[in-house]
Amino acid sequence: MRREGLRMVDLQLVIPLFVYLLAVYGLAFYSNRILSKAGNFLEEYFIGSRGLGGFVLAMTLVATYTSASSFVGGPGVAYKMGLGWVFLAMIQLPTAWLTLGVLGKKFAIVARRINAVTVNDILRERYQNRAVVILGSLSLIVFFIAAMVAQFIGGARLFEGVTGLSYNTGLMIFAFTVILYTTIGGFRAVALTDAVQGVVMLAGTLALLAGIIKVGGGVGHIVADLRSIDPALITPFGPEGFISKPFILSFWVLVCFGVIGLPHTAVRCFAYRDSRSMHSAIILGTVVIGVLMLGMHLCGAFGRAIIPDLAVGDRIMPALMIRVLHPFAAGVFLAGPLAAIMSTIDSQLILASASIVKDLYLNYIDPAAGSTEKGEGLLHRLSFWSTAILGIIVFAASFNPPDLIVWINLFAFGGLQAAFLWPLVLGLYWKKANAAGALASMVAGVASYFYLVTYVKRFWGMHVIVPTLLIGLIVFVIFSHFGGKPGKRTMELFWGE
Length: 497
Description:
The protein is mostly helical. It has helices at 2-37, 41-47, 54-65, 68-81, 83-89, 95-114, 119-127, 130-163, 167-215, 219-229, 245-254, 263-266, 275-306, 316-324, 327-365, 373-396, 406-429, 435-456, 465-482, 488-495, and strands spanning 458-459, 462-463. It is 78% helix and 1% strand.
């Protein structure tokens, strides 16, 4: 009888997850049919033919930004650090507004003028320098691999913690799903699944938070329990003052202003249909991110009162699902964080593939490949295989994971910002920016970031992204004064002069 009861519980948990995965596969094959009829393969495969409406744009931006760090790693740290980490997580609230507000309109205008499908296409036209594009492409691929490893680990841990499958089995199921639908469906599959995933994430977050509050006896009772465990859990600075004021300040850079320099969110600015879609996405995206960040991190912090003795913080979300939700509801909720994680990986995977195919192969190895039927077929195969192989590499690197994946994700965030933030922002808004400044800033930024992460760890209590970006900015400005002025064509493209 006990075996049968356990079996029924497992089925109730797995059925909604299975239905969700079937829906993802269906969207991938639907997108592949559209892809096979597209007149411009690269534009359809990598940016969905620039046809996203406001709802889909908002959801794909939110789903791309939220990740294993938001649904597994962040709540895992909140479990350890308490309500102070919830406060810190809310710094991410303006993400959609910053990305679309700062980059959106100008990116879309320039991208349409030059037929850009990647962020490096913008850099190539702005700076007219091969080294800038190659360094940007290599930086993107390296840091995306690190970011995707964190996502694969998060997805596998969710499978392990909720379904009872081993970590390696969960990793294989998760990896197969993401690699399959991203490879065959391209950007449109990514965007459509992101729209579904955004709704699933919202529903799952609210359901789990409501369940935790109910089981914990209400917010007041949960806070009292946290105080009894450790009074520091209900302070802004956490146990042992871990969340210092300089650390809070640096998070305004790392997960707020700095998100402008993340290529996988920036490329969303290429794909929307019109200005109305962008404005709708800014409002909706900000609301959704606010609900998700507050809800998920509160789940992690409140979870300490319900399950106080977990050794690994990253396991709190699966443990809470089993503890506070009906098995069927737990299965529905499991689809939520899996959706967030998948949507981040697929965006990074498709953009890393685009860097190989478009930024490196088509620009510098075989520029004529897209002009013939044979070359177009080669680009099809190269796009599919580069996406699949990158996914397999990340899958292989995801064994033997660390305890807290949030730090892997933040490392990748910082590296991408060190490489791309100033070349993108100053390239769009500072007419004197040139190739010398951009290249020097990328080299100095990435090199200093690796050094500071390895040997310094914290800089005057701040995350090392702060001095890294300061070094990159200073170097950019200095070297731009020694380089030449942008050409007439660049001025026309970016400023209409």
